[in-house]
Automatic annotation (TrEMBL):
<feature type="domain" description="RNA polymerase sigma-70 region 4">
    <location>
        <begin position="137"/>
        <end position="184"/>
    </location>
</feature>
<dbReference type="InterPro" id="IPR007627">
    <property type="entry name" value="RNA_pol_sigma70_r2"/>
</dbReference>
<protein>
    <submittedName>
        <fullName>RNA polymerase sigma-70 factor</fullName>
    </submittedName>
</protein>
<keyword id="KW-0731">Sigma factor</keyword>
<dbReference type="InterPro" id="IPR039425">
    <property type="entry name" value="RNA_pol_sigma-70-like"/>
</dbReference>
<keyword id="KW-0238">DNA-binding</keyword>
<keyword id="KW-0804">Transcription</keyword>
<dbReference type="Pfam" id="PF04545">
    <property type="entry name" value="Sigma70_r4"/>
</dbReference>
<dbReference type="InterPro" id="IPR013324">
    <property type="entry name" value="RNA_pol_sigma_r3/r4-like"/>
</dbReference>
<comment type="similarity">
    <text>Belongs to the sigma-70 factor family. ECF subfamily.</text>
</comment>
<dbReference type="InterPro" id="IPR013325">
    <property type="entry name" value="RNA_pol_sigma_r2"/>
</dbReference>
<dbReference type="InterPro" id="IPR007630">
    <property type="entry name" value="RNA_pol_sigma70_r4"/>
</dbReference>
<dbReference type="InterPro" id="IPR014327">
    <property type="entry name" value="RNA_pol_sigma70_bacteroid"/>
</dbReference>
<dbReference type="InterPro" id="IPR036388">
    <property type="entry name" value="WH-like_DNA-bd_sf"/>
</dbReference>
<dbReference type="InterPro" id="IPR014284">
    <property type="entry name" value="RNA_pol_sigma-70_dom"/>
</dbReference>
<keyword id="KW-0805">Transcription regulation</keyword>
<feature type="domain" description="RNA polymerase sigma-70 region 2">
    <location>
        <begin position="34"/>
        <end position="99"/>
    </location>
</feature>
Length: 193
């Protein structure tokens, strides 16, 4: 049977039948689901994030998870609802991660701003950023890795825990310790706000 004719036939199947077909190894069924939902999931993510690349990344993550975990997915309702909720949750995680990053950056700026301004008059932001990078590199290896995944890669505590095979509590503690260490090491610097 010609591929486009076969794909056309799959277009007539329900989402749940397509998922079952994919679970049985039919990748064409996955392609139909992808085409069916990509646009609406992207719009859902974009409406909240107002950032094209982030919205595309979110939708790609949802479909990657569907591809890798299809056999384990137990639907209690429609596949569409599952995909919408998965997209919404990933958007919320991304927003929380960005908020946490901004909160820590703001907190760090506040503590640095409280430092003695007399000795800070001639230090440029570039020097401060370079010093901060040196201090981050000086962190213990695991703490630095966790901190950089959180701050530079904007991963959630859960994502970091999974990637490094740590508990979420350990990740949270490592980030907290890194921030405390950096505040202490950078106490005599300040940002010019």
């Amino acid at each position: 049977m010609h591929q486009s004719t076969y794909t056309d036939q799959l277009d007539n199947f329900t989402d749940e039948v397509l998922l079952e077909q994919f679970r049985q190894g039919n990748t064409a069924a996955f392609e139909v689901l992808y085409k069916r939902f990509w646009g609406v999931l992207y719009l859902q993510a974009y409406r909240i994030l107002i950032h094209e690349e982030d919205a595309q990344d979110i939708v790609q993550e949802v479909f990657t998870a569907l591809w890798t975990k299809a056999a384990d997915i137990e639907l209690s309702g429609a596949l569409a609802a599952y995909l919408y909720v998965a997209t919404r949750n990933r958007v919320l995680n991304m927003l929380a991660s960005k908020r946490t990053y901004r909160h820590h950056l703001s907190s760090l700026k506040q503590s640095l701003s409280a430092a003695d301004n007399n000795s800070l008059q001639y230090i440029t932001e570039k020097e401060i950023a370079a010093r901060m990078e040196r201090e981050i590199r000086a962190l213990p290896a695991k703490m630095r890795e966790v901190f950089e995944l959180s701050r530079k890669s904007a991963l959630t505590h859960k994502e970091i825990a999974q990637q490094l095979q740590l508990s979420q509590e350990t990740v949270k503690k490592q980030i907290s310790n890194a921030i405390r260490t950096l505040r202490h090491k950078m106490a005599h610097f300040s940002f010019f706000c």
